[in-house]
Predict the 3D structure of the following.
Amino acid sequence: MNILITGGTGYLGNYLVRALDDNENNITLISREKLDNKYNNVQCDLNIQSISCETLRGIDIVYHLAAVTHDINSEKDNHDYDLLNYLATKKLASQSAKCGVKKFVYVSSIKANTPKDCKKEIINEEDEFIPDGIYGKSKRKAELALLEITESTNLNVLIIRPALIYGPELIGNLKKLEEFSKRSFLPTIPHVNSYFSMVHVKDVVSAITLIVSKDRSRFSIYQVTDGYEYNASKITKILTTENCVKKYYSFPKIFFLFVCRLGQFINFFIRIPINMHFYNKLFNGTSYSNNKIKELGFMPKFNFENRRD
């Protein structure tokens, strides 16, 4: 099978490439820079360039993972998110359909359906909310653009919405928390009855390969989680235990509210990662159902505590 992958050098992309690397698949990686590996490599900056029909002709499946993923909650960065997450996705899917590609797998995000103030306990794929934040909005716009393309072409689109991704090595905010815990500088966060969903990177790859092999529909969306509920208190306790932190600090919720409001004010002058957006991530989580993909046979193997097994 001939496969084309964007974002193959990223965190999730690396795991997906390894999983698809067998004698039956011929893999082409799209990247900005020239890659030194055994795969076919086509250099293309998706922000400003299109992948040619010469490259896409004969491709059976496009896996589109390339994205701007760090939500810094700043209106001035709207264009950056729209450029790659929305416009480049729309352009790549249209070109894929034009050049005879039959299946397009888009890695979206759970944020594409995460509202600012969610009153529902668990969100599923049938729910439709206006997403909060630049990242989620750009991902949802891409999903809607893909739906339009499937309605006017022969392209089949499968969309996967992973929850917050973790793995043997952590990235993003989870990595920052891990680094703080190693320095014994991670305060314990008070327990709140607000939970969020996460998923192991290897389980995301398993989910992708599963829907490609079993879903024959023209257009489908799947949420992917590990089936567990987490909150910031549980995560910090796991990290402090892993790093054998004997001395730690405990503060009430109002302390974090004060610090984040202060950080919100400071952000008017200099950029720091502490603000009310960060506070909401800590204390206002959203949980998601993975029942739809479980009906295909998806069985996650990991949770945050056994992520290195």
Observations:
- The mean pLDDT is 90.
